[in-house]
Amino acid sequence: MRFSVYQQKKGWGSLFEVTHYGSESYKLSDFFEYHRVATIEADDLEQVFHIGNGMGPQDRLTRIAERMHSISVGDIIMNPEGEFFMCDPMGWEEIQVPSVEEIIERGAA
User: Fold this and answer.
1) Which of 47, 77, 83, 99 is deepest in the core (most CB within 10 A)?
2) How far apart are alpha carbons 34 and 26 in whole angstroms?
3) Angle at CA 47, nearest 5°, toward 32 and 35?
4) Which has the closest alpha carbon to 99: 85, 81, 76, 82?
5) How far apart are CA 48 and CA 82, in angstroms?
């Protein structure tokens, strides 16, 4: 299954609270500070985490952006069903993102 990896546009830590506390600090508007950096072929979120941190087969990772750091707290993953999950200090938490219309309107698509 193909998962998409989203990381903060300005680099790790640009959204300080989200980078340290994950979904507990995430606000819907924060999504506009992210962009898609890679896709990963994996069976589940845990495998995405391992591959995205160099602990799995790297031929399953396709970089899209010029820069991508290892997957860490505050990063967002979209699964094949279109659900979004944030990497938390312990595990994953499903999050809401803006509507497709709002994303297109703001030029973030």
Assistant:
1) 77
2) 12
3) 15
4) 82
5) 15
What digits encode the pLDDT tens for the residues 88-101?
999 999 999 998 78
What pTM was computed for the model?
A: 0.90
The first and second tokens of residue 62, run together, are 């396709």
Q: Which letter does DSSP use for residue 23 in this model?
A: G
Residue type, position 97, single letter: V
User: How far from 85 is each of 55, 59, 105, CA to CA, in Å?
Assistant: 20, 23, 23
Q: What is the pLDDT of residues 46-55, one digit of tens each?
A: 999 999 999 9
**In the predicted structure, residue 66 carries a pLDDT above the cut 70:** yes
Distance CA 33, CA 6 (A): 10
CA 40 – CA 49 distance, rounded (Å): 9
DSSP label of 93: E
The upper half-sphere exposure of residue 73, i.e. CA atoms within 13 Å in the direction of its Cβ, equals: 16
